[in-house]
Amino acid sequence: MPLTKDDLAKYPFLLQAQNYIKQLNLTIQELTETPQIIKHAQQHITASFDATPPQPPKNPEIEIASFPVATMMVAAINDKYLKKRYALHEAKKIHEHLKQEPQETILEIANFFKWNVETIPPETKAYPFTLHFTNYLQNTTTLQQTEWKLINRQLNKGKVYLTQHEATRLLQEEIRKHIEAKLDTKVSTLPPEVKETVEKLKNTFTARKGAIKLEEYPKTVDLEAFPPCIKSLYNSISTGHHLSHIGRFTLTTFLVNIGMTAENVIDLFRTLSDFNERLTRYQVEHIAGQRGSRTKYKPPKCSTLQTHGVCINPDEDCEKAWSPLTCYKRKLNKKTSS
């Protein structure tokens, strides 16, 4: 089914959108010399870390053209956390469009990603799609709800039955990963107009990053009450500094025991140069009791942390504390009673 210009404005990551720009004979230099395109690209990026959504342009060509420009700008800022937020924001926005689409359009998007997907006879109204289990597993690694576990799915000859909502939700994951991969492109030079905008965006995001991360954490988590050792580990990883094995284990066990989700903890580790999504996810979820024996691990004792040099700058709340959790609870109690 041929996609219209309005369709390409909703799904600008598609090859057809790239070809459309080529047909207009617009180079990246010409795209970035158009103020409307730069402004709209900037709005898309700001919307990924702000509450204000961009105003949709009246001209779909602006929407189509702003996507590669925004991608280039985020890649140039080169902040792993921003890349993640921007990719997720764009994928969620696209998902909202997909939920309103006919099956033909959903198949068109799925075929772009080379999914082994089929529609099934209309009499099976509950499950209009089947998807090969390999494609299914590739896009459910971050979906922790029990209904996404393969063992809980209706499966026939290697094909998983999906509702339309489930199919579009999995496409959201595929789109998120696709955009994240594009953001890893190295940007060596930028047109002057774009370079100035990139610097402004970078400064704005850097100033707000701490507050943005805090907004994502459970309300029960109080960073101000972190023990000195945990605060040091947390600050180190937040700025991309290497942590020892016991340092990573201590920080992870502490955070999952005070109510932080495994996903929040995994995001913290993204700043590290040796970050490995699959390995980190397995380790964090295992520590959080979501894998294996389903036992949630506790932080090492304070005496163990002293032996390994992780205990630093202990304060009065650390005195005779059994573990960092003890110290954390003391600090929380002090704040509550004051």
Keywords:
338 residues, mainly alpha, 4-stranded antiparallel sheet, 16 helices, 4 strands, globular
Task: Describe this structure as you would to a colleague.
It is a single chain. With 338 residues, the protein is mostly helical. The chain has three domains: 5-77 and 188-206, no CATH class; 103-177, no CATH class; 220-337, no CATH class. The protein has 16 helices and four strands. It has helices at residues 5-10, 15-23, 28-31, 35-47, 60-77, 80-98, 103-112, 133-138, 164-182, 192-216, 228-238, 245-257, 262-269, 277-287, 302-307, 324-337; strands at residues 117-119, 129-132, 155-156, 159-162. The longest helix is centred in the middle third of the chain and has 25 residues, at 192-216. The protein starts with a helix and ends with a helix. 31% of the residues are buried.
